[in-house]
Structures are given as structure tokens and as C-alpha cells.
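New to this. Please check this record:
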Amino acid sequence: MLLSTLFFQVLAATAAFAIPTSRERHTERLARRGTAGDPISVPNQVVTRPVSVVNGTDAAQVSYSTNWAGAVLIAGANTYKSVTGTFVVPTPREPSGASGAHSGAIWVGIDGDTCQTAILQTGIDYTVNGGTVTYSAWWEWYPDAMHSFDGFVVRAGDTITATVTATSTTSGTASITNWSTGLEVIAELSYPYALCLENAEWIVEDYTVNGALVPFANFGTVTFTGASAETGGGTVGPAGATFIDIVANGAVITSASAGSSSVTVSYTGP
């Protein structure tokens, strides 16, 4: 398939204005969600193992969070240079017994777990509200908020590859390819928030608006295939990663697992 590529160059001083129509797109997204404020993906908010979890043989490999579900590789500083993964866009649903707007995000990233001062990440978000489902593609260099890739169409069933690459601790690229539409977008980024380069992750997230988690949608199952991270010594897969599951109201509502080149995250809540 012939790909059509769009490039964006973003400097920290002009990030909010680098893509002129993204603010309009952002406003539309918030209106569909019934929220106001900037959506932001934040670092892993670790919680203690809930009492409902029975100790198992893999207990040491699983951690729990209020906002992240997936897998994270952890190493020393200046280890991970690039992270990639491919997934099929799900059709989210409102949890059983719930109504109104429910959302979530799927992304790959560098840092945000043991290093929480900065995250370079890219992916999609989704919102279901009644019978309407909307999607948007975005990048983020935390602690800045999400920024939409304007004009990048995302639909249920599309095959998406998301990749982030750090060219230094304060610069890098975020790219998304939609193999179903033949469109690729690349943002060249420069920020003052230094990465540690010690975490590589594949995540489904309950993101934040106005300091609070958004109501989390039932996303079904998301599998990242071709999941890998580049280091100074070569390419590694997610095998041996730490799994993260989301805890809400004292109950675990996701289940994460990984193979040599894949990460699977399933919604197990109501």
C-alpha cells in the first residue's frame, strides 16, 4: 500500500499552536465527551495489590494502577531509544449498567513508570456515548497535554502502528501509520522535559481531564503485535516485562499478558 505522510514540527514554546486546527478538533472532542479541559495522559499511578487478588506464581510480575493497563520494560537510564507496536482499533462499549460518555486511550511510550518526570508517547483515544463512538490520534510529551494529529482518520477495525523515537532526552519523533487508510503522520518534537529513557511500554489508559480520571470504557481486548523496543544494544521484545492492571473501586478490571513480540490487554470489569 502506498502511504501518504504528513509531517508536523513542534517546539515546546509553540506546541499549543503548532497545528492550527488541532484546537478546534480538540474542542470538538471535548464536546462529544461532555468534558472541558485538556485531556492528558499521566504517569502510572501505582496502587497496592487489592485484597481481592489471590497470590499467584506470577504475583511478583504484576503491579496495579488506577490508570495504566499493559506491559512495561524497566532498565537503567539511557536504555530505550524507540518503542513500537501495532494494534486493531477496538469498538468500545459503556460498562454494564453505566451510561454517558466513557473513554480510554491506547498508546506506546518511553518513560512514565519508574521515571515520572516526562513521557514521550503516541496513540489513539476513543469515546463511546450511547450509540456514538469517536476516535482521535495524538501525541504527547508529558507534562504537556495531548495534541491531536489533525486530519488523521481513525475508525473501528483499522490497523494502526504507533512508534516513538527519542533522538535525545529532550527531542524525538512520534508517528502513527493507519494501514487501513494508507495515511502516516509524524511529529518532530523538542521539549525541555528530559526523558530518563528507562521505561518502554504498551498501554491502555484511563486518561485524565481536569485532574480526574475520565469514566473508563469497556474496550474489549487490545493486542499489540510487533511490539518491540530499541536499545543501544539492539531490539528487545516485551517478554519478561512487568504487567500492569487497573484497579477501580477495589476491583481489578483489566488483565495484561505478553509474549515474545506481543502484549494483550483485556477489559474484565462490568
In short: The first helix runs from residue 22 to 33. The chain has one helix and 22 strands.
